[in-house]
Amino acid sequence: MESLPIFLTLRGRRAILVGDGDIADAKRRLLLRAGACIVGADDAEARIAIVALQGEDAERTAAALKRRGLLVNVVDRPDLCDFTLPAIVDRAPVTIAIGTGGRSASLAKTIRQRLEAMLPPSLGGLAEALRAAREAIHARFPRATERRLALDAALGEDGPLDPFATAGEAAVDQWLAGADMPQPDRLDRLRLTSFDPDDLTIRQARLIAGADMIYHNANVPDAILRRARADARLAECDTPPPSPFPGRSLFIAMEEE
Questions:
Q1: DSSP E strand stretches across the chain
Q2: What 3-state class would DSSP assign to 15?
Q3: Exposure string over 238-256, b if 16+ CB within 10 A, otherwise e
Q4: Which of 14, 80, 101, 245 sits CB 3.0–4.6 Å from 213 for a disulfide?
C-alpha cells in the first residue's frame, strides 16, 4: 500500500482551489458536493488545497502552499501531490473510492463504472437501516464476536442483507426477527500449493479475509497474509493450536515440495 486511504470530512471547512477552466470547475463541483467552503490561495484557515494549473505555475503555487503547511493536490502531477483524488462511487452514506496512486485516471474511472453497475441504489438505505438497528443488533448479539459473525453471514453473498442485492431498508428488521446465533468458535485449516496470492481459490480467499486469528507457517508469504483483515491477529507457528482463538481462526501451511 503506497498511501493511506482516508475519508476527510470537509463540510463547513475551507479548501483552497487555484486555477480555472474545465478541470478546475470539475474539482470545484467535487468540493461543493463534499460541503467544502472554497476559498482563494491567501486564506489562512484552509488546511488543504487543489491546484489546477500547468507547468511552472503549478510547481511554484504548490511549493508556496506546502511551505504554509497545507496538504496539496496538483491536478495531473502525482509527483507534486500530498494526496490524490480517487474515482468515486457515491451511494451516500456509502462511498467507495478507487485510486491508482496517480498512475491512470482512466483505469480508476473504468473500475468505478463497473462498480456503479453492480451496486444497487438501495445500498445507502441499507447502511442507514443498519445504523438505526444498532441497539437492536447489540441486544440480539451481545458478544462482539457473535455480532460480527452474524453480520458477516447476513451481508455475505446471497445473504438476507447482501449489499449487492436490492434489499430494502425493511430487510434489516426482517433479518433480526429470524436471525440465528452464529456458529461457535472454530479453527479451519488451509494448505496452499502456491506462493502467489493470485492462485488463491475463492474459498481460500474468503477464509483468509474472514478470519479473526491466523496461525501460519514461517514460509507463508506476506503477499498472502495481507489478504487478511487489517484487524485480524497473526501468529507464526509450526502446528495449529490445541484450542481455537474466539471467533474464526485459520491455520495456513504451505504444501511441501
A1: 14-19, 37-39, 48-52, 71-74, 87-91, 94-98, 186-192, 213-216, 233-236, 248-254
A2: strand
A3: eebeeebbebbbbbbbbee
A4: 245
DSSP category for residue 133: T
Angle between helices 170-178 and 123-132 (to 10 degrees): 50
pLDDT tens, N- to C-terminus, the chain (257 residues): 788 889 999 999 999 999 999 999 999 999 999 999 999 999 999 999 999 999 999 999 999 999 999 999 999 999 999 999 999 999 999 999 999 988 888 999 999 999 999 999 889 999 999 999 999 999 988 888 788 888 888 888 888 999 988 766 788 988 988 877 666 678 889 999 999 999 999 889 988 988 889 999 999 999 999 999 888 899 999 988 887 677 788 999 987 65
The rounded distance, in Å, linking the Cα atoms of 3 and 71 is: 14
CA distance 24 to 37: 15
- CB burial of residue 34 (10 Å; 0-12, 13-18, 19+): middle
